Amino acid sequence: MRIAIVDESATRAAVIREGLAAFEDCEIFVLTERKGLVARIGEVAPDIVLIDLGNPSRDVLEEYFAVSRVLDRPIAMFVDQSDEEAIAASIDAGVSSYVVDGLAPHRIRPILDLAVRRFNAFARLQADLSEAKGKLAERETIDKAKRILMDSRRLSEPQAYAELRKTAMDQGRRIAEIAEAVVTAHRLMGGA
């Protein structure tokens, strides 16, 4: 496992490193510069990112939230103090685990495990949502194609659907693809 530790303080980074000592087959990268952080994290290509901010200002916190928004990885963020607004912003930014006043070597492993599990659960939810949106869009396209066939060829809804299905089977394509072709052709022919 490749782990990136983002911390401007070598002393605090050492606490996280100590907490990761029990991990076998683990490569640890400590990044101490904020400048060009996203690019450097991209070069390291970690499996998880641990960010320790100590007691950050609002601007620094926002800067790290911006970084976490572009990373598609589990992120655990450690801060000494927080408020409801910062917690809400961390969730919006995709931080998997936001730990307030909890930086201790013995807590690193469970926090890391939690961050990975929450990230994976969220990724599954995102995939399910994307799939559901895709199916809904396909259903809308099929309904639009049925309406076009019903209006242009004076078919009933079951007949229009049967026509789409038969064409899809004859061409070895999905009904949604045939429906999209019908809608596109209708639009090209001046239909609404």
Automatic annotation (TrEMBL):
SMART domains: ANTAR. InterPro entries: ANTAR (IPR005561), CheY-like_superfamily (IPR011006), Sig_transdc_resp-reg_antiterm (IPR008327), Sig_transdc_resp-reg_receiver (IPR001789), WH-like_DNA-bd_sf (IPR036388). Keywords: Phosphoprotein. It holds the Pfam family ANTAR. Residues 2-116 form the Response regulatory domain. The modification 4-aspartylphosphate is found at residue 52. PROSITE patterns: ANTAR, RESPONSE_REGULATORY. The keyword GTP-binding does not apply. This is Response regulator receiver and ANTAR domain protein. It comes from Novosphingobium kunmingense.
